[in-house]
Design goal:
It is found in: Membrane. This protein is α+β, with helices and mostly antiparallel strands and 272 residues long. Helix content is 53%, strand content 23%.
Amino acid sequence: MNNRRLLPFIILGVIALFVLMGISSSIFYTINATQRAVVFYKFGQGLDKDDVIQPGVHMKSPWNDVFVYDVQETSQDENMDVLDKSGLSIKVDVTVRFKPIADKIGYIYEKFNLAYVNVLVVPEVRSTVRQVMGRYTAEEIYSTKRAEVEATIKSESEKILLANNVDMVALLIRSIHLPDQIRIAIENKLQQQQEALAYQFRLDKEKSEAERKRIAAEGEARANNIVNSSLSDKLLKMRGIEATLELSKSPNAKVVVVGSGKDGMPLILGNN
């Protein structure tokens, strides 16, 4: 009898369990470490832009919507045909690295929904690449000002994206493809410039070496003039006498003839 009374409660409990399991995905949601989310309250305040949901397990009403954003750095590759300053067609491969500003994803969703990459990032970067490269010649883009072109594209794109709460980390020009005849002409010109620089370097080096030798020769000549001007007959005689006295003190057998040398200098004769 007691079991019959409990049976309706058991059935209701089982039904409630199945219902709860069925709607649990609408009530509980998980935000990973590299994600952030905002909630849209259908019967309340609408999109809560400033309340950004942090990583973890959360609850919501089944009728509210959760919009999840990946906030880690990501990249997008773009292959483009652009025109240089002269109207020459150039193919460029560009990589842009970016991430949404985590605490501003509500504002990103309000303007671009979840498709901000295709709606904002890609069009703005492609437009900026075309505008900037249109200010330079193919030769400048390909060789002499490639770094400047890259930095300018990043700077101008960064301003637009940052104004829309997206942080541009980097922009890289991976490759530039020119028509073969233009590329060969530019490479030949660069080679000639390198050869001219190398030749000028050798000339400057030879000029520097010649100047060094001239200065050394002038210094040696001045030193000789100083020595020659300081020598006199009396000084030479005195140095000769001093040398004779020093030699006479040695133990070797010798004969000293005073006044028999040139200019009256003593001669030292000996067999050792």
